[in-house]
Amino acid sequence: MGRVITKILPVLLALGLLAGCQQKLNYRNGQYRSAREMVRLKKEGRYAATRPTGKAKTIGKAPSGTKTKIVTKRAPRAGNATGTLASVIDAARSYQGTPYLYGGTTRLGLDCSGLLQLSFGEAGVRIPRSSNEQAVWGTPVRNTELRPGDLVFFGGSPGSRTITHVGMVTVVDDEGVDFIHASTSLGVVENSLESDYYLSRFIRAVRPQL
Fold first, then answer.
1. What is the pTM for the complete model shown?
2. Which member of 165, 167, 172, 177 is catalytic?
3. How far is residue 63's CA from residue 120's CA, in Å, rounded to a whole number?
4. Given the residues 81, 112, 166, 172, the one annotated as active site
């Protein structure tokens, strides 16, 4: 009897693993899809290989394990802003790669609100220094109505309503919404606003009054 069970057990395990693979799900656009459906969608071009991929970065360890920060990092895409806002976005992009420095206002180091103050300043527009002051400098706008040049504000943790971070929308098109900011871990960089990491921390957006 023991020999029979020993022979059958690997078969059952293999079937179990196979069933598990068939049920593997992928999360896309707010819903879970099966692996088979993802293959079909990719063949149709709805999720092409050029779409951005997530990048995991370890930011610390908790007693229960490793804490991971997931962000979606993109190469800069052509923007669709015009006039003064196009100049502001170009100025902000010229700082890409600058390291983060709390209170920094030069190319040696920048914080998030400092990046925006410098970028608007180079376009001849004076704006407040802190992210909390910048959050009331303009007209509130829904995240479904964002345009290039809008300022987006975030909390330090999912669901927080205390503003600790700010960025500026650079691109809004069929591929999604990108914004530029001075990340504490990556420096000045453009990211997708639609990544789970940033959406979970999003608080509000304002449109500058120029």
1. 0.66
2. 165
3. 43
4. 112
Please say if 162 is a catalytic residue.
Answer: no
User: CB under 8 Å to 125, separation ≥6 — which residues?
Assistant: 84, 88, 208, 210
181 catalytically annotated = yes
User: Which of 155, 179, 153, 183 shows the shortest CA–CA distance to 168?
Assistant: 179
Which tens digit of pLDDT belongs to each residue from 34-56? 455 544 554 454 333 333 334 43
- The per-residue pLDDT for range 153-190, each reduced to its tens digit, is 999 999 999 999 999 999 999 999 999 999 999 999 99
Using left for φ > 0, alpha for ψ between -120 and 50, and beta otherwise, residue 203 falls in alpha
Question: Which among 95, 177, 181, 191 is annotated as catalytic?
Answer: 181
CA distances (Å), 106 to each of 151, 188, 203, in order? Answer: 20, 12, 27
Angle at 190 between CA 58 and CA 195, to 5 degrees: 60
Residue 21 bears catalytic tag: no
The angle formed by the CA atoms of residues 141, 147 and 150, to the nearest 5 degrees, is 60
